[in-house]
């Protein structure tokens, strides 16, 4: 009995494609995943900040509370917690991950908030000498209590608690920056 011959090749054999053919290695794949999460966070956060554009001529406290609540919901979203956990776990090995998130999301959200606060100051609604600092402080007034109350994302905060944190943050912000 003759050994069976290999089937004839009908053309060049294509290499086996994997995800690494596209990204190169695990680190690049991981960076791409972090960038995608940051892009998703940016979209939702900018939509929240954009509420300041529409509501600038109305009750400022109410508008800031709505913006703050939407930002708090974004911050407490499971994808946002997952992104922060990944960053915390890997930042010592891949320090550029923080830069990716800052450049793709955090900085842009702060810049948008600063722009809105500058416009509100020009319209006489806020007393802000440095809109970037005001934006940073608004974010801190929201995020610090959310981290504590949610136990770094391990506890889901009910809507009532998100509202309470937001109202406290806005009242404190307005005490520092209101023009009235």
Give the structure's gist in a few sentences.
The protein is mainly α.
Question: Keywords for this structure?
Answer:
180 residues, mainly alpha
Please explain how this structure is put together.
This protein has 180 residues and is mainly α. Helices cover 71% and strands 0% of the residues. It contains eight helices and no strands. It has helices at 19-23, 26-49, 51-54, 60-75, 78-90, 96-122, 131-149, 159-177. Helix 2 (26-49) runs antiparallel to helix 4 and helix 7 runs antiparallel to helix 8. The longest helix has 27 residues, at 96-122. The radius of gyration is 23 Å and the shape is globular.
Structural class: mainly alpha
- Percentage of helical residues? over 70%
| Total DSSP E strands | 0
Rounded mean pLDDT is 88
What is the approximate shape? globular
Helix/strand layout:
Elements: H1 19-23, H2 26-49, H3 51-54, H4 60-75, H5 78-90, H6 96-122, H7 131-149, H8 159-177
